[in-house]
Write a structure and sequence with these properties.
The protein is α+β, with helices and mostly antiparallel strands and 422 residues long. The protein is built from eleven helices and eleven strands.
Length: 422
C-alpha cells in the first residue's frame, strides 16, 4: 500500500527506536525487522555486511533462517554472494519477480542454496551506504512470486538509507570488540606459553634427576656387580656354565634397563612406526610387571590420521598418552586399560580409559604429571579432558587436536626444547 511522507517518516522513526539498547548487530537487526514488516511484509529478511575493505561479508537473518546465518561467525568472500553485483556497486539495486529463475542470483560458485531451500522468490535488494561507501545490502523476500513493485523498492531504499548509519556503527563496535578479544586472547596465550615453558623446563630437570638416579641405583649397580663377577672369574681362572649363565642374565638385565631409559627419553618406536605402535608398545611394557595382571585393548579407526601431524606435536600427544597410561598403572589399580584412536575430517582423538579406582577431582593447575599433561595440550592447541570413565569409576583421558594444526606456536625456544625433551 502507498504511504504518505508523514506516515513513512513515522514508521522510519519507529525503526530507529527499535535500535535502542542493542549492541549486538544480530539482535538489533531482528528488532528492526519487526518494524520493517509493517512497511514491507516479508517471509525472510537479511542484511549482508561487507568486511575487510569489501573482500568478505557476513549475514544476519530474520524470519526464516538459512545457512547464510553461519556467515555471522565465518565470513566468506563477497565474490560468491548471490547479491555481489549490489555489494560491489555494479548494480544500484535488484528487484526480482522470481529469484529462483533470475540468472542474476545464480552463477558458478554462488552461495545461492538458501534461495532454493527457503523458496525466496520475490526479492528486493538495496545497498546500505555509510560515509559514501557501500557497507552492505538490505534483502527482503517473499515466498510468492511477483509480489514486490517499484513503489516497494522505493520504500526499501528509504529503509536502507535510514538504518545504514546505525548498522555501520554497530558493526564498527562489534569489530572493535572482536579486536579487543583477539588481543586479550593473544596475551593470555603468550602468558600460558611462558608459564607452560617454565613448568616443562622444571619438569625436564626433575626427569633428568630421575634418570640419573635410575642409572646410578639400577644400571650402574648392575654393571658394578657384573664387573665383580668377571673379576672373580678372572682370579679363579675358570668359569662354570652356571656362572656364565648368571653373568649373561645380568648383562641382559642391564641392556633391558638401558633400553627402557633410552625409550623413555626419546620414543624411537614413535619415530619408526608411528603413534599407534608407540602407544601400544608403551602400554604393553607398562603392564608387563603389574600384579595382578592388567588386560589391555587398543582400537585404531583413525586411518593413519596421526601421520599428518608435525613431529613435535605428535611427540606431545604421545607424551600425554604415556603419562595417562603411567598414572593408570601406578595409581589406578585397574583390571583393564583401553586406548582408542579415532578421527574425523578435522580432528584426531586419542582416548585412554581404565576401570580402576578413578582419579577424583583433578586441578589442571597442579604441578606434576597431570599438570604437565594440561600444559602440553595447551602448548600445541589440543583439548584435554580428564574425568571419570563411567558411573562405576575409572579414569578417562581424552586428547583432541586439529588434523591441520600446523606447527607449534613459537612462544620461546626454551618452550619448544622442553616440549621435545620431556
Amino acid at each position: 500500500m502507498p504511504y504518505t511522507a508523514a506516515q513513512l517518516m513515522d514508521r522510519l522513526l519507529s525503526i530507529s527506536r527499535a535500535f535502542a539498547g542493542h549492541i549486538d548487530p544480530a539482535a538489533a537487526f531482528r528488532a528492526i525487522a519487526v518494524e520493517i514488516e509493517t512497511l514491507l511484509p516479508h517471509d525472510h529478511m537479511d542484511i549482508a555486511v561487507v568486511l575487510d575493505e569489501g573482500r568478505s561479508h557476513v549475514c544476519y537473518e530474520a524470519g526464516c533462517y538459512t545457512s547464510w546465518s553461519a556467515l555471522a561467525q565465518h565470513p566468506l568472500p563477497v565474490d560468491i554472494s548471490p547479491i555481489r553485483d549490489v555489494l560491489h556497486g555494479d548494480l544500484p539495486y535488484l528487484i526480482a519477480q522470481d529469484a529462483l529463475e533470475d540468472a542474476r542470483f545464480h552463477f558458478p560458485g554462488a552461495l545461492d542454496g538458501p534461495i532454493y531451500a527457503a523458496n525466496l522468490r520475490s526479492r528486493i535488494v538495496v545497498p546500505l551506504r555509510a560515509r559514501g561507501n557501500i557497507i552492505g545490502a538490505l534483502n527482503i523476500s517473499r515466498h510468492e512470486p511477483g509480489i514486490y513493485t517499484q513503489s516497494d523498492l522505493e520504500v526499501a531504499q528509504h529503509c536502507a538509507e535510514f538504518i545504514a548509519p546505525y548498522i555501520f556503527a554497530l558493526i564498527q563496535s562489534e569489530e572493535a570488540r572482536r579486536a579487543m578479544l583477539a588481543e586479550s586472547e593473544a596475551r593470555s596465550r603468550a602468558e600460558l606459553l611462558r608459564v607452560g615453558a617454565a613448568r616443562l623446563t622444571e619438569g625436564m630437570e626433575r626427569e633428568r634427576r630421575r634418570i640419573g638416579m635410575d642409572l646410578h641405583d639400577q644400571t650402574l649397580a648392575d654393571l658394578s656387580r657384573v664387573v665383580r663377577q668377571v673379576s672373580a672369574l678372572h682370579r679363579q681362572g675358570v668359569a662354570g656354565a652356571a656362572q656364565l649363565a648368571e653373568l649373561e642374565r645380568e648383562v641382559v638385565n642391564c641392556l633391558t634397563e638401558l633400553r627402557h631409559i633410552v625409550d623413555d627419553m626419546r620414543p624411537s618406536v614413535l619415530e619408526l612406526f608411528g603413534l599407534r605402535d608407540a602407544i601400544e608398545a608403551h602400554l604393553t611394557r607398562s603392564v608387563s610387571r603389574a600384579t595382578p595382571s592388567i588386560a589391555v585393548r587398543i582400537q585404531d579407526t583413525s586411518d593413519g590420521a596421526a601421520d599428518e601431524l608435525p613431529e613435535r606435536i605428535l611427540t606431545a600427544v604421545y607424551r600425554i598418552a604415556q603419562e595417562a597410561i603411567n598414572n593408570a598403572v601406578r595409581h589406578g589399580a585397574p583390571r583393564c586399560i583401553e586406548v582408542r584412536m579415532e578421527a574425523t575430517p578435522s580432528t584426531l582423538r586419542v582416548v585412554i580409559s581404565d576401570d580402576g579406582i578413578g582419579c577424583g577431582t583433578v586441578d589442571p593447575e597442579v604441578v606434576g604429571g597431570i599438570g604437565h599433561m594440561h600444559t602440553r595440550a595447551a602448548l600445541i592447541g589440543a583439548t584435554l579432558k580428564l574425568g571419570r570413565a563411567g558411573r562405576k569409576g575409572g579414569t578417562r583421558v581424552a586428547i583432541e587436536i586439529g588434523r591441520h594444526c600446523g606447527q607449534i606456536p613459537a612462544a620461546t625456544d626454551i618452550g619448544l626444547e622442553a616440549l621435545e625433551s620431556l
